[in-house]
Write a structure and sequence with these properties.
single chain, two-stranded antiparallel ribbon, 4 domains, 7-stranded mixed β-sheet, elongated, alpha+beta, Beta Polymerase, domain 2, 23 helices, cca-adding enzyme, domain 2
Length: about 425
């Protein structure tokens, strides 16, 4: 889970990271350098490398045209795939690792969702079309950082700032509104950049042009961050949450949930947080799931959060919780409990709520000890009576806290068979 990290006292002037000197990337660098071609790491890998954070994907940029990149890669023995030729991107696989290599570009037409690009050999022109200064940093093969738009200083001061005119950058792709908040939550400190915030607020109607899938990805990533509640409070103040959810949200509950997570030592769960923020009824769960086009498991997670009525969650005994876990599973009841706790007025350090959540997380539900075969072995004819006896036994077993004494279990099953008319 990505969270804001402490600001390094000084950012290095030259990047030194294990992935930069690892064999797969060195092989790519060497292949280009042997042919006199320029290629540099760009974007998130450089940003995270400077902050000492994990790097997942390593993206590369080059002035070479896509066809020349493919020819160079193939002649060097790499596998190469034309994954986005319209935008100048090919994927090179070197020593088992995939790298996206994109030709330098400039936008010639934008619609708020898609761009028509032209290729260029100008590194600055390519940098100026990117979204935020901290995402436009470049790194050469020897680790030299190239900063064309002031990203290094912004990164050192934990500022997330649009490149050039914020409104122009947003009109090129309205998803940048959500990316501004998500990046601010992950990499920023303190108040959000005022110019960027004002531009996002004035252009928020453009969010309606975005696909639900793109919005979902950004919202869940934002909710996973350490600063989620603070940043969403800012979004709420300028009505951007309303533009996303089309209804009011409860930032105070999200803030309480984050404090509960911290008190329990739980990792951030974006779906728990989404439920706390925007789900307070079955109707809400259905509406949010549809609006964000959540997957079936994600939609179930929101429904799970309101599975236990608030008054039950607040007073449930350990036996009731074990019965609920047996019926619905640990994850579902944990979600419901932390949601109920966040929605309640109970203190963050409340021992009763803490015990309930611990029970939901740690208790291992037993397996139903009997099947239809066991009932048939007692002389019951195949048919509806078999199911009725199993249901009756399960009700007794659950009500008596799942006794594991085999003789007691067998006696009860036999008694139920004897009670058949």
């Amino acid at each position: 889970m990505t969270n804001a990290t402490p600001r390094p006292s000084v950012l290095p002037k030259r990047l030194s990271a294990p992935w930069l000197s690892a064999a797969p990337l060195r092989a790519i660098f060497n292949a280009f350098q042997d042919r006199g071609a320029d290629i540099r790491v760009v974007g998130g890998a450089v940003r995270n490398g400077l902050l000492g954070l994990a790097v997942k994907d390593i993206d590369l940029a080059t002035p070479l045209l896509p066809e020349a990149v493919m020819a160079l890669a193939q002649s060097s023995g790499f596998a190469v795939y034309p994954t986005g030729l319209a935008h100048g991107t090919v994927t090179i696989v070197g020593l088992g690792q995939a790298f996206e290599v994109t030709t330098l570009r400039r936008d010639i037409e934008t619609t708020g969702r898609h761009a028509v690009v032209a290729f260029t050999t100008d590194w600055t022109e390519d940098a100026l079309r990117r979204d935020f200064t901290i995402n436009a940093l470049l790194c050469t093969a020897d680790g030299n950082i190239i900063d064309l738009v002031g990203g290094r200083d912004d990164l050192a001061h934990r500022r997330v700032r649009f490149i050039g005119d914020a409104g122009a950058r947003i009109r090129e792709d309205y998803l940048r509104i959500l990316r501004f908040f998500r990046m601010s939550a992950m990499y920023g400190e303190g108040a959000l950049d005022a110019t960027g915030l004002a531009a996002c607020a004035s252009l928020k109607e453009g969010l309606a042009q975005l696909s639900a899938e793109r919005v979902r990805t950004e919202v869940l990533a934002l909710l996973a961050s350490q600063r989620a509640a603070d940043v969403i409070a800012t979004m709420h103040a300028v009505s951007i949450t309303t533009a996303i959810f089309k209804t009011d949200v409860h930032v105070d509950r999200l803030r309480r949930l984050q404090a509960i997570e911290a008190g329990l030592g739980m990792a951030a769960d974006p779906l728990d947080r989404l439920a706390a923020l925007a789900v307070h009824s079955d109707v809400d769960a259905t509406d949010v799931s549809a609006r964000l086009r959540l997957s079936t498991p994600e939609s179930k997670a929101l429904a799970d959060a309101i599975r236990i009525p608030a008054h039950v969650a607040a007073t449930a005994s350990d036996l009731v919780l074990r019965q609920l876990v047996y019926r619905h599973g640990n994850a579902a009841i944990r979600r419901a409990l932390v949601h109920g706790w966040a929605a309640s007025a109970a203190p963050i350090a409340n021992a009763d709520w803490h015990r309930r959540v611990t029970t939901a997380v740690s208790w291992v539900a037993p397996t139903m000890p009997f099947t239809g075969r066991d009932v048939l072995a007692l002389g019951v004819a195949p048919g509806p009576d078999v199911g009725r006896i199993l249901l009756a036994f399960e009700a007794w077993w659950s009500a008596h806290d799942f006794p594991d004494d085999v003789r007691e279990q067998r006696a009860r099953l036999t008694a139920l068979v004897a009670e058949l008319p």
